[in-house]
């Protein structure tokens, strides 16, 4: 992403952001409330067109008029939202194959295959064995962490090259958080990339290769994990937050 600006009427959410995700890299995107993290994620995942700036995927310049969440999926970019990842009233298998139905020889949805593949995703990627969840379960019966898990499992199943997670651990139990962090490690192990947005620095620090700090719509720092300790990262964020507050008084 080059020189990305995003305005919402008079609100300037992003002001000239340069952001690159490399091969097999986990990036922790951090910053205060309203810094522009979700906006950057939504521009990258095709939900919002940028007001200005350029996006390149595998070196190819993207035409903003052709770019959408669907197009991003086709290009191997999947986004996992805490809330909107899955449709509430549907069976899991329908959700997993939403918009990407496995079709049989006559072009009809292959329901048996969709169910068996969903079962495989649950066992292989998520370790849900006999937890009372099956491909037939309704999404509304799953816990927050389980939903998050299914959304991530789906992204992995379709072999997304880049998975973007926005606050995936909000309101999750300790055990579920552990699972989400395991997923991110698994993304890394499979040679894929991840952008991980969170306010919990301990989690970000644990799984990321490098950190990008956003403040009021601008990137204010980029650090490699090897260059600083978790405490130094926290100190740095505190420092930026304090500077923001000084700025707010002017
Ligand atoms: N759809 C929108 N319409 C108007 N303003 C918006 C919209 N989306 C975001 N903004 C504004 O853009 C700024 C950045 O918001 P954004 O959601 O990107 O922040 P964030 O870093 O994700 O914050 P948080 O950590 O609280 O999730 C905020 O001032 C917000 O009010
Ligand atoms: Mg946000």
Structural notes for this entry:
This protein is of the alpha/beta class and 250 residues long. The protein has 8 helices and 11 strands. It is globular, with a radius of gyration of 19 Å. It starts with a strand and ends with a helix. α6 (174-189) links the parallel β8 (162-166) and β9 (193-197). The chain has a domain at 26-45 and 76-89 and 138-249: Rossmann fold, CATH 3.40.50.300. The chain has helices at 37-44, 69-74, 92-96, 111-125, 144-157, 174-189, 201-207, 230-249, and strands at residues 2-8, 11-17, 26-30, 52-54, 56-57, 60-61, 77-81, 162-166, 193-197, 210-215, 218-224. Strands 7-8-9-3-10-11 form a 6-stranded mixed sheet, with helices on both faces. Strands 2-1-4 form a 3-stranded antiparallel sheet, covered by helices on one side. Bound molecules: adenosine-5'-triphosphate and magnesium ion. Magnesium ion is lined by residues 37-38, 166. Magnesium ion binds at residues 37-38, 166.
């Amino acid at each position: 992403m080059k020189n990305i600006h995003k305005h919402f009427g008079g609100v300037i959410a992003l002001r000239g952001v340069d952001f690159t995700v490399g091969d097999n890299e986990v990036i922790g995107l951090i910053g205060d409330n309203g810094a522009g993290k979700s906006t950057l994620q939504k521009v990258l995942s095709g939900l919002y067109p940028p007001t200005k700036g350029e996006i390149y995927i595998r070196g190819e310049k993207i035409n903003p008029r052709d770019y959408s969440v669907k197009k991003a999926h086709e290009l191997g970019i999947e986004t996992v939202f805490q809330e909107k990842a899955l449709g509430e009233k549907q069976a899991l298998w329908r959700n997993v194959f939403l918009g990407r139905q496995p079709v049989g020889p006559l072009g009809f949805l292959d329901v048996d295959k969709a169910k068996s593949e969903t079962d495989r995703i649950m066992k292989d990627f998520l370790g849900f064995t006999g937890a009372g969840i099956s491909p037939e379960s309704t999404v509304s019966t799953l816990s927050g962490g389980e939903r998050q898990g299914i959304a991530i499992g789906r992204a992995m199943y379709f072999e997304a090259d880049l998975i973007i997670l926005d606050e995936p651990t909000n309101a999750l139990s300790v055990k579920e958080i552990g699972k989400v962090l395991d997923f991110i490690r698994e993304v890394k192990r499979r040679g894929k990339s991840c952008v991980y947005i969170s306010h919990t620095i301990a989690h970000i620090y644990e799984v990321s290769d490098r950190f990008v700090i956003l403040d009021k719509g601008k990137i204010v720092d980029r650090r490699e994990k090897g260059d600083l300790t978790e405490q130094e990262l926290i100190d740095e964020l505190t420092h930026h937050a304090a500077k923001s507050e000084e700025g707010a008084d002017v």
